[in-house]
Each structure stands twice: as C-alpha cells, then as structure tokens.
Amino acid sequence: MTLKLVLPKGRINTKVLQLLSDVGITLVGDDRNYRPKAYGFDLEVKLLKSQNIPSLVEMGQHDIGFAGLDWMYERRSEVEVIKNLGFDPVKIVACIPEEWDWEEVKQRKVIVASEYKRIATDYLDKNGFNYQLLRSYGATEVFPPEDADMIIDNTSTGTTIRANRLKIVDTVMESSTQFIANKDALKDPGKRQDIDNLLTLMQAVLNGRERVLIEMNCSNDTVESIVNLLPAMRSPTVSRLYNEEGFAVKAAVPKKDIQSLIPALLQAGATDILETPIRKSL
Question: What tens digit of pLDDT does each residue of 104-116 get?
C-alpha cells in the first residue's frame, strides 16, 4: 500500500532527508522537482513549505509528513505526533530593541510584528498586552523600531536578532521537527502497519546514531573489570579467543561516553580496541 508522504522544503529539509537516506529511502529528482521519486519504500512524495504541512496532513491530503511543532500549533492541526525527532530545535521568542526597557514596553500599547498570528495572539492575550498585531511575511526582525515595538519570531542561535540590535525578553514556546500522521490513516490497518514499519526503521537509525560498537581483547584476569566498565545496551558479548588465553569483548555503548571510556578500558587491561559506527540499532 502506497503511503502519501509530504516533506518540508527549507530549513528542516536537510536532516529529514538524511534520516530517510539512512533508513534506506532514496529520493530522485532535481532541486526544482517538488514530486521526487522514492525508492526503498512504497511512498508517493511531495515537497511543500513546512507551514502548509500540518493542515494538509490533517485534511488527509497526505498520510504522513514532517513539520515543526510551531506550525502545528499555529495551524491548530489535529494530527497524530508519531515521533518527536528533535531536529532543528528553535525557540519562538519575544524581542524588543536592545536599548528599550521591557517593563515600560509592557505598560503601553504596542505594535507587534509576527509571522505567527495565533501563537502571537495567544501569548499577548495571556500576558495582558494592549497591542496591535502586524502580520509579517519573512524578515520580521527588521520591523523595529520604526514599524513595530516588538516582534515574536523563531530563533536557533539568536545571531540574527542581535545583528538587528534586538534583545530577547521572553520565550513563547520551543519547537522541533515532528513526524506526524493523519488520524484516519492510522485507523487503516494496512497504512498503520506501513507507518509502524517506517517508524521502526527510523528509530533504529536514531538509536544507531547515539551508539558505537566497541570491541577489544583482554586477559583472563582482567575480563571482569573490563565488562563492569561497559555501559552496554544489555550484557556485553564475551567469547574465548581462538587458541589463546583470554577473551574477546564487544558492546554497543553510548557515543557520548567513548572519550572517557577508552582510556579507562586501556587502564583496566584491554588491548586491540576497535570502535565501529552503528547504522541501525534496536
């Protein structure tokens, strides 16, 4: 059964495409092709702006897709979040000119520029602002101080905000890439199975990115101390060396621990240490 998949163009596209590639899905098409051909999984693929994806998945135009949490909230889309991928994390922030006083700004009527009409309205109403909302269509940070007193916009590093002599005064929400599905598609047994299979493959890739396979040899009298050092997914694999005294030990360990783990293993008596990337892990 063919799943209809909608992919984002723009900022969050790169990591999503890399994930699909690591899963084993190849997309063929040039940069101007909005309907690439998919190989490796039964998919009908279309590329659209991230802002439109949640609504179209909710409507059933597509079975599954990838979108930022900010646009899901902005569109009030009734979709099922299958997996928070955590890609491209951003904050939606309120900003004012860097020399202005935030407490003073909150006491007067303000013009607020934002690409997020609903997110901005919810925030401003909740915090009791007297405001006029100006809908922006990109480059929101250039509005203050002449054309707006405040902006509500997304940022990952704050560099663009600082470059335009603005300062962050509040965080409205945090967002990252979500893998989403149409609720009716999940009720279809065939589509649900395919979505679950795709999710399993994606999870295997994500798990593999967090771990490495480490292998080593050790003597009879050091094997226990070496095994105790290994933070394996389960128990490490230990086997006798052929025609020799000692053991071969291997384990999948968190990548973040490897820098401190290898010196500790060497000190405990491990030899012939090999570190290997893991493509998939479940």
Answer: 999 999 999 999 9
